[in-house]
Amino acid sequence: MQWRRLARFHRETLHGRERRLAAIGGELKRIRECAGLPQRVAEEAESLVKRYFEVVAGFPPEVAAVAVLWTAAKVAGVPRPLEDFLRCSKADESRVRRVAWRLKEVMKLGGKPSIEDYVKTLAARVNLPAAVVKAAVELLEKNKRVLAGKNPWVSAAAALWLASLKKLGLLKALAEAAGTTPTSIRNAAKRMRV
Predict the structure, then answer these.
(1) Could you tell me how far CA 153 lies from the centroid of its own chain?
(2) Cα separation of 37 and 189, whole Å?
(3) Which of 108, 132, 152 is the last residue of a domain?
């Protein structure tokens, strides 16, 4: 009986990812044609979506497509202002900038960064001491299973907040540095065992 549930879960997950890739791909094509971008930018965008799917998967297809195309245009050496892409889409500018920022961070770190990289980056942005960083990394190591598949920025921010003894002013600073909301950080902190 359990193997049937696992097989169904696998089928749904696999199809969900494929469905998501197809939706983003359709938006990429539509926006590329509307903005009049060269084919090499579209090819670069498709490779970025496949390589960094975890980064863009949680956002609506139009937001992901605009962010990826904007980033791909820069990478391909044909930079364009964001407004050129937003004219062709209903995507929210702030969300597009957030996705593009996350893409840039992951690309800069060369592949998929470890959770420790996220913690160190956030700690540097809000000027936290090394002792808090160490405690946060240990906390994340203890809670690996709970945090699997969750947004690494939110998890890192929650661990730093818990390690710094839940300072309220720090919560807002961490949320801003991680590109998320204080509520998301609080919810992630509730899932962790201290």
Answers:
(1) 8
(2) 43
(3) 108
179 and 136 part of one domain = yes
Per the CB < 8 A criterion, the answer to whether 181 and 175 are in contact is yes
Residue 103 and residue 11 share a domain: yes
Q: Considering the entire predicted model, what is its pTM?
A: 0.53
Joined tokens for residue 65: 């497509």
Residue pointed to by tokens 């998929």: 112
Q: Which amino acid is at 90?
A: K
Query: Which residue range forms the structural domain that includes residue 33?
Result: 2-108
pLDDT digits (tens, 9 = 90+) for 6-58: 777 766 665 667 778 888 888 889 888 888 888 888 888 888 888 888 778 77
The reply to whether 81 and 126 lie within a common domain is: no
What would the two tokens of residue 163 be? 């390690």
Q: How much is the CA Rg of the chain, to the nearest whole Å? A: 18
- 50 and 86 in contact (C-beta within 8 Å)? no
Number of domains in the chain: 2
Alpha-carbon distance of 51 to 121, in angstroms, equals 22
Residue 61 CA to residue 184 CA, distance in Å, equals: 22
CATH number at residue 34: 1.10.472.10
